[in-house]
């Protein structure tokens, strides 16, 4: 049994009749409930729910205060390598894109680490392209051991690993994992991943659970919005998070909501996801799963990110570069995608304070 079996039971559901039948009375009932059903979650994603965003926002704000307080954790990504063997139509790292490829040496990793640590950040997320030959697990392990000298928390967003490999990187010091399914619709998934190991839908879908079984501290999942109808993708994401949260109660589960941004390829989002859609998605997730953390990355514009803070955002990236070596090296690489919020760590810190929230640089220490 894995989430794939759950997905198989809901993937062919026709959500639209439920959306069409959602009434104002239904919305008022849902907004006054403490525990929501899956049907309630679906109705929160309906067009009718757009009329109740203000009420949903007030409840999301209250739930976020109840479960997370007035804090926002700051972190930044560090790109170790951008070699990749996959052909994902939406990503600059697509093996057929002509971009400058590079991989950091261990000394360069320490240079990057020193530059990031000087900003006060204690949490980082290391990323690579998906190329086991150039960027093997052994390289990741050695990189993590060096980074642990500078940071209290090292998260990882790399290619899916076997369960034994997750055990190895966790023992080396990795405490959190990010794995985006990109798109939960299995047919669309097959169409946008043209070749490479990432084409294996189920192996990727099961990756978070393999890490959970090895007792990783935190797992972050999410769709890449724009590849499918956002209402369906958010429903599948919420169901995935609920499955993980229920089966692995000791693991912190969080969700990111990235939208497709300009990249080295020519692919453009097939489904529009505007700011209001993103807000509705965030509200629905927060009301359905109050204990799930929400992360908003620098793919979003500064004002929009700031305004989302009171609605349930508990993690934000800051001082971001999506280039390999982008924090300290004179010659980095091409970026993975364009960011929309170029503010440095200090500027993000003050933006959070201006909202009446506390920026947190460290909320985790291994022992």
From TrEMBL:
Database matches in Pfam families: BATS, Radical_SAM
Record-linked CDD domains: Radical_SAM
Keywords of the record: 4Fe-4S, Iron, Iron-sulfur, Lyase, Metal-binding, S-adenosyl-L-methionine
SMART domains referenced in this protein's UniProt entry, alphabetically: BATS (SM00876)
Co-factor(s): [4Fe-4S] cluster
Enzyme Commission number(s) from the entry: 4.1.99.19
Cited InterPro entries: Aldolase_TIM (IPR013785), BATS_dom (IPR010722), rSAM (IPR007197), rSAM_sf (IPR058240), ThiH (IPR012726), ThiH/NoCL/HydG-like (IPR034428)
GO-annotated molecular function: 2-iminoacetate synthase activity; 4 iron, 4 sulfur cluster binding; iron ion binding
Top-level class of the enzyme under EC nomenclature: lyase
The protein's name: 2-iminoacetate synthase ThiH
Organism whose genome encodes this protein: Vallitalea pronyensis
């Amino acid at each position: 049994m894995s989430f794939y079996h759950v997905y198989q039971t809901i993937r062919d559901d026709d959500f639209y009749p439920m959306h069409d039948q959602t009434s104002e009375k239904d919305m008022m009932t849902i907004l006054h409930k403490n525990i929501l059903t899956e049907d309630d979650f679906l109705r929160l994603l309906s067009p009718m729910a757009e009329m109740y965003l203000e009420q949903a926002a007030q409840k999301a704000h209250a739930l976020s205060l109840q479960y997370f307080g007035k804090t926002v954790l700051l972190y930044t990504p560090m790109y170790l390598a951008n070699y990749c063997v996959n052909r994902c139509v939406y990503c600059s790292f697509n093996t057929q894109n002509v971009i400058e490829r590079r991989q950091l040496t261990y000394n360069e990793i320490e240079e990057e680490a020193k530059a990031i640590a000087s900003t006060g950040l204690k949490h980082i997320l290391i990323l690579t392209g998906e190329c086991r030959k150039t960027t093997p697990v052994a390289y990741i392990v050695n990189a993590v051991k060096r980074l642990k000298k500078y940071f209290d928390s090292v998260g990882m967003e790399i290619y899916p690993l076997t369960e034994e490999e997750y055990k190895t990187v966790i023992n080396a010091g990795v405490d959190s994992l990010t794995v985006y399914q990109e798109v939960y619709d299995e047919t669309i998934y097959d169409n946008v991943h043209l070749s490479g190991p990432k084409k294996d839908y189920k192996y990727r879908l099961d990756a978070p659970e393999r890490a959970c079984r090895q007792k990783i501290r935190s797992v972050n999942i999410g769709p890449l919005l724009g590849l499918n109808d956002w209402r369906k993708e958010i429903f599948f994401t919420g169901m995935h998070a609920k499955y993980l949260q229920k089966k692995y109660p000791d693991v912190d589960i969080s969700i990111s909501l990235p939208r497709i941004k300009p990249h080295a390829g020519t692919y453009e989002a097939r489904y529009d996801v505007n700011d209001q859609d993103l807000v509705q998605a965030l509200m629905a997730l927060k009301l359905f799963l109050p204990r799930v953390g929400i992360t908003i990355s620098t793919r979003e514009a500064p004002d929009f990110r700031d305004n989302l803070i009171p609605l349930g955002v508990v993690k934000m990236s800051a001082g971001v570069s999506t280039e390999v070596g982008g924090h300290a090296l004179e010659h980095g690489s091409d970026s993975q995608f364009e960011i929309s919020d170029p503010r440095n760590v200090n500027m993000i810190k003050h933006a959070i304070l201006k909202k009446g929230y506390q920026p947190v640089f460290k909320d985790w220490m291994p022992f």
